[in-house]
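#struct-pred
JK: can someone run the complex with protoporphyrin IX containing FE? inputs below
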Amino acid sequence: MEGSGDMDAAPLLRPVPGSYGVPFFSAVRDRLDFFYLQGEDRYFESRAAAYGSTVVRVNVPPGPFIARDPRVVALLDAKSFPVLFDVDKVEKRDVFTGTYMPSTSLTGGHRVCSYLDPSEPKHAKLKQMLFSLLASRKDAVVPVFRSNFGALLDAVESKLASDGKADFTGLNDVTSFEFIGEAYFGVRPSSSAALGASGPSKAGKWLIWQICPVFTVGLPMIIEDPLLHTVPLPPFLVSSDYKALYSYFSAAASPVLDAAEGLGLPREEACHNLLFATVFNSYGGLKLLLPGILARVAEAGGKLHERLATEIRGAVASAGGNVTPAALEKMELTKSVVWEFLRLDPPVKFQYGRAKADMRVESHDAAYSIKKGEMLFGYQPCATRDARVFGPTAAEFVGDRFVGEEGRKLLKYVYWSNGRETESPSVGNKQCPGKNLVVLVGRLLLVELFLRYDTFTAEQVGKAAAKVVITGVTKAATSVSHG
Ligand code: HEM
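RT: done, structure tokens with the ligand placed:
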């Protein structure tokens, strides 16, 4: 635990253990272990156990032929991981997706903000554009979320009545896209001539083109590995989808683009960046965040539901029946549940950074010397489920883990945003600028659910690329607030 003797003792200096095996062949074999034969958790846990170290040399996917070099030093504990947040020590240039970078023809020929190191002058301007956008739309988020997700829950209820179950993942894919477009730009994508109803499918396809090298969609290994993990999918096959998305942004985001020009950014580059931050960073994140929270909370069961409903309804009632910022702040358990989900199942699991100089990295047990130019890689679930910090329940979902003064002390070990939860994104670091919005949106989902329902049930169908299906809801006896 924090402050215990073993964390303070002078650590033993040891070479980073592990092996990359035979060039090419071992990288392919390891990729199969990672996706199909072991699965990603066991892939890292078994190597850490075999070498008796939470800092180990391993290959990471995709390897040949998409990535030139699959070799990394993996950081698999809560103590070594944060070196990745220190942009004085690690270079974050072109490492957003890992050891490969998708073609810039998927982003209008530009290296967008997520791929820039803070030392590159454009990084600060582009990130500032996003901070300004989020600040200017702050008051829109709650009402726009409530109207879109209120309609989603209406759809869930009619599906439950007709089919006995409702595919939350599918409904969320459509609703989150509408929500994020309307929240950021005040224009529903479905109402635009460029996109109509096709936005979510075009966006989903474009996302796959970029992340499929490190993703499994659940097809059999023999088909999926050669198709998705061996050579890049050709960008021209998604260019008409991208053009349609771009048209929506260049019209709907016109005022944001005017402001970007004021910051000295070329309008067209700003637009490609807005598209990426909205569709990849935000929408891509919400596709994982909201079904993930729903599944964990369903699994946690009725007792937690009852406590959430009491807290949420109490806070909303004391704000005159409205979901106000002050009411949301009072919901300590609700906030803790969102953080606990982000700790246990961080939606973005991989982080990378290249050592800028020779350095030392410390785990709980040892110190390791890293050479300039080596690629550091953090597998976040190992770091944020570290039993040396979170104790014997580290691998379990404990909804009230972050409640109270003691609970809040653990927040500095929550790393989902590529920074500590107690720190803030800035133009000088690489922490996610959507940090506060993401935690807010997670809380709003719980608010919407427990204003309507006393309890609900849901299950995960399938393993890779699982769907979350709602199987039942118990409506609140007295309606609290749907306004
Ligand atoms: C960066 C996670 C939502 C915009 C990041 C990084 C992570 C992350 C881990 C760091 C990647 C790296 O450099 O290694 C998430 C998750 C989200 C989410 C899990 C949702 C569940 C958002 C939202 C925005 C956003 C709503 C909207 C503005 C960005 C941008 C960067 C970034 C622009 C690059 C930051 C920089 O270059 O300094 N995000 N994010 N993300 N995120 Fe998010």
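RT: quick notes.
The first helix runs from residue 5 to 8.
The pocket of protoporphyrin IX containing FE is lined by residues 92, 96, 113-114, 116, 127, 130, 277, 281-282, 285, 289, 347-348, 351, 416-418, 430, 432-434, 437-438 (CB under 6 Å).
JK: thanks, will look after standup
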